[in-house]
Amino acid sequence: MNDTRTILVCDDDPLLIELMEFRLRAKGFDVAIARDGAEALQRADEVRPAAVVLDAMMPRVDGFEVLSRLKANAALADIPVIMLTARKSENDIVSALDKGADDYLVKPFIPDELMARLSRLLARKKRG
Amino acid sequence: MIEQWSATIVWAATIIAWTVIALGLAQTTVYLAQLVLAAYALSKRPPVARSALLWRRYGEVAPPIALIVPAYNEAMNIVESVHSMLALEYPNFEVIVVNDGSKDATLELLVEAFGLRRVNRPYEEALAHQPIRGIYSSPMTERLFVVDKSNGGKADAQNAGINVCRAPVFCVIDGDSILEPDALMRAAQPFIDDPVRVIAVGGTIRVANGSTIENGRVTQIHLPGRLLPLFQVVEYLRAFLMARLAWSRINTLMLVSGAFGVFRRAEVVAVGGFTKGSMGEDLDLVIKLHRLMIDARRDYRIEFIPEPVCWTEAPESLAVLSRQRSRWQRGALEAFFRYRSMLFRPRYGRIGFLGMGHILIVDVLGPIAEVLGYILMPLFWLLGILSFHYFLAFTALVFTYGIVISVCSLILEEAELQRFPRARDLAILTAAAIVENFGYRQINNIWRIKGYWQFLRQDNNWGEMTRTGIAKKGP
Amino acid sequence: MLVLIWTLSLILSAISILVMVVLVLRRVVAARREERDAASRRHVMTAMIRLAHDKDADAFLVAAAGTPTSVTADASSEFLGLVRGEEREAVLEALLRAGQPDFLESELKRGDEVRRLHAVELIAAYAPDVAIGPLRGRLAGDRSREVRIAAAIELAKIGTVPPLGELLDRIGYRGQRSRRLAELFRLLPEDSVAELRDLTRQRDAPGFLRASALEALWRRDGLAEPSVFVELAEDAVPEVAAASLRALGRIGHRASLPLILSKLRHPDWEVRMEAVEAVGRLGDPDAAIAMTDLLDDEQWTVRYKAAQSLLLLGPVGEATLRSVALEGAARKQRTASLVLSEGMPA
């Protein structure tokens, strides 16, 4: 088990990236960034982050597919994934949880809540 | 005897000359009317809102949409296209790729990339088409379905897709169309604002040549560096921003491009879907929809949204462009003669008079009149029927008029959309709008006459069964 | 004549050249301004992100002071769309101090339709005492219907709308069918429920509106009173009858089962479809036989829905479907076996 402090943020919205980067750094995390789905998969493989914050609607490969590819890859399946997306329909939430998402937050979101959920996931992973 | 002959010739020549001039005038009037109407429509239409706002505003009430993508021998880029389609921003949509009996590895690549499995999916056999060999779904995404069927051409594949889709609204695109991420959101808006009456929506299609394409999206807009695609940029601006917008304003839009068109499923099924073996199946479908709705005396709208929603790669070689234009011409002629009974029938009101009349003037008689003009004017001058001064003056008028129409369509673009980022691009476009009138316009007419000739000979030799990617209808 | 033709050509050329020059000049100016705005937009965005975290309003106000008000408004709209909770409140507080609402109010008065629409949505984010006045003003007097609907929707979200009749008069709903009206109905505060119910009964109102009102009613948990649905299931307008049957199924009103069963033979297929779906949701195994008739309906959608609804009934429904698949009439058989195999690997 690696004990990296890197969080991978995948989103194509520059505002969200800047916001998350600022908040995560304030909490002492390192931040890796991916602006589309294919980059997300590639970065996840290179960086082996402690957790992934994943948007659903991204260019190239959409977030749900990134999620199922991450979870299907034995080397990456343990990395907790939090979905952070404007998609809020029942179908989307159920489908993401089915595919192995560890948490699901709908935009607009409370940044502090996301940080708290992230800490909880990381703590659980360390114990487990 | 000889004198009598020459008198007859002069008499005939005068009649022909006047006919050509009358037709030219009719065309001129059509263009002028389009320009005025389009300007009016744009002034009535609010400027474009940003797509994030659209999602917030309409996300809750947007209807489910099925994206139907016919694919024939698209192995080159099918996987990347499907990825970018799945990444569209829309709350509720599915992508139905119809593999039209490809001879290459289109299906295999899809199966491999998305881990496709064959599934049972009951569907309505509302439209006839070549047999479906199997329907596939992906464990990675619920939004993707792949239909594998025997080869039958683009219209056939689209009909199969319409059968299989369950959404009340579907969107047809070409396998090589590049959609803007918010294309569906924008095209859905008329269906949200007026869900009872709107039965079809078209959107602006742009030429992608020269622009930077990354990850299946157009990221930076540039003008093409080569002359041929550059002329097509001007043509597309004129055709979409001016012509389509104008006609939709009076609910007489006759063509929703097959490269991007959104339709309500029920009405398309009622008219029997796309007509097979037709060159311009998109024009054909829209005329059928008009006929259905007018016959049933139903109030309806066929809308057009001026925002660019779709990008297409325009032909860069004369040979390919020539084939495309001849095919468009043949498609227009086929559709016109198939539905000629609607022409000037009072029962079909504005569609019979304006819509079909427009096709008659611009597509059926237009190319002939223009070519006759090119041949006859110099001929008359040589024969001494027309004075040199008049010949020169007429020619000048024809050209300056063409230039003004093109340049004015640039005003529309600038006033509302401003999609070309640099002032320099604008100057280049204007220059292209002028140069286009000398040479390109004439070559285009020759291609159209070629299409005419093929139509008259009923040359139904499609060659290789209409390659779906190419059989699209642009301006 | 010759002179006329030449003059015409010259005029046309002059027009072209003039148009070209004006457009290019305009563009040069616009490009400069855009570049400047983009830079200050990034600047104010960063300030907003810090403000949300540090709650240091003064630092933000310094940044906002050096930014055009319209750019701040634009940036704030994106930020407010992304973040909620306490941090959003802190940002709104600072935006209020930076004079944003005044700017939005002037936008509401002077902007074009899209800017007014945007300003309506943005001003609604502020405290009710700031937002309600301008929103009411728009609802009462804006010349665009889109803006009036948007103002009504925002007012409904805040929970303060005029009586429904007045609201619809203000929007000018007659002849209009926007799906946005359906959304408005769903957002109406609880004290409007009685009015919504009255609207469903107004025979002269468009069917679309009445159906939307019916939908808004059943979607409110605990407020749906079945009597209106029972009554309107008999309505002459198919749209209204279908919406009522849908409502009865969704709220699980078992007492109305005989009524719903009687609609399985309704001449309008949408009514039949809603009826058979409602029977499936109510889950009465005794209804299975009646439902099998619709497996042979002339409309595919009805056939498909009938088979799916049979599956919803549980073991009895599934058994019925299986027996039809084995020995029913051709079309029934086909529908049944298709739906039984749905989603399974082929």
Give a structural overview:
The complex is a heterotrimer of chains A (128), B (475) and C (346). Chain A contains 5 helices and 5 strands. Chain A has 128 residues and is α/β, with parallel strands linked by helices. Chain A has a 5-stranded parallel β-sheet, with helices on both faces. The radius of gyration of chain A is 13 Å and the shape is globular. Chain A starts with 5 loop residues before the first strand and ends with a helix. Chain B is an alpha/beta fold. Chain B has 2 domains: 10-42 and 346-456, no CATH class; 48-342, Spore Coat Polysaccharide Biosynthesis Protein SpsA, Chain A (Alpha-Beta Complex), CATH 3.90.550.10. A 10-stranded mixed β-sheet of chain B has the order 3-4-5-2-1-6-11-8-12-7, with helices on both faces. In chain B, strands 9-10 form a two-stranded antiparallel sheet. In chain B, strand 1 (65-71), helix 3 and strand 2 (93-100) form a beta-alpha-beta unit. Chain B is globular. With 346 residues, chain C is an all-alpha fold. Among the domains of chain C are: 174-282, Alpha Horseshoe (Leucine-rich Repeat Variant), CATH 1.25.10; 287-346. In chain C, 75% of the residues lie in helices and 0% in strands. Chain C is built from 20 helices and no strands.
Corresponding CATH architecture of the largest domain in chain B: Alpha-Beta Complex
Q: Give the mean pLDDT of chain A.
A: 91
Structural class assignment of chain A: alpha/beta
In CATH, the homologous superfamily of the largest domain in chain B goes by the name Spore Coat Polysaccharide Biosynthesis Protein SpsA, Chain A
Query: How many domains make up the coordinates of chain A?
Result: 1
- Count helical runs of chain B: 14
The major beta sheet of chain B can be summarized as: 10 strands, mixed
The figure for the number of domains of chain B is: 2
- Determine the strand fraction of chain B and express it as a percent band: 5-15%
Query: Rg of chain A to the nearest angstrom?
Result: 13 Å
User: For the residues shown, what is the average pLDDT of chain B?
Assistant: 85
Number of strands of chain B: 12
Broad structural category of chain B: alpha/beta
**Greatest chain-chain contact:** B-C, 53 and 51 residues
Poorly predicted runs of 5 or more residues of chain B: 461-475
Count helical runs of chain A: 5
